[in-house]
Fold:
Amino acid sequence: MFNQNFVSLTGRLGADAEIKTIPNGRVGALSLAVDHNFKNNAGKWQTATSWFRVITYMPWLIDNVLASEATKGRTMFIQGSLRSRSWDQNGKTYNTVEIEVDPSGGIVPIHDDNKPVNLVHLVGRLGDHATIKTLPGQGGGKMASFSLAASRSFKDSAGQWQNATDWLRVFTFQPSLIDKTLAKTATKGRLVLVQGALRAREWPDEDGEIRKAIEIEVDGKGDITPVLEDKP
Structure:
């Protein structure tokens, strides 16, 4: 129960799959465009597109799916886990979140007329108390956000089981979740179950460089639930 990190997505490939040889084998990478339909402040439906990077080290998927089926414009179904990664470049620290497809997941070509999928299921601990802000403008409303430490287990290149923690950002605009759950129980170290959707966000930094963040939004279809733990 406490080691859950699943994401399911359908989207279009922005380019042919990229396959590279690395010291311990090969890695395949996909650029996936996922559409998101939502109502704007005027109550009209709009469509936004988020771009996500998908990676896999699985030889079977690389040889039988990515090398032959993963072509630009193809619609794919992805099931994997969220992985956070950071690196330093030109004096700046960059952070990103990717979807890794390991033996418990998969990559499958599908028809364009399939129902869109964007689902995230996580269990993790809050890195701090949830932050709740009142939004500007006549509409008012609130937004809540928090950092989540999600644990995962995986096999390394030597076939040994390892444990890692990925830090992910979760946010919601849902009044009932903010008032009834986050304002009362979203405290540092609390274990919670998060069900939401992946969103990509971009903004310019102080040097005018475009930064990108991958976050989990809990909308009306999702939920944030505190997990009860057995006390020793």
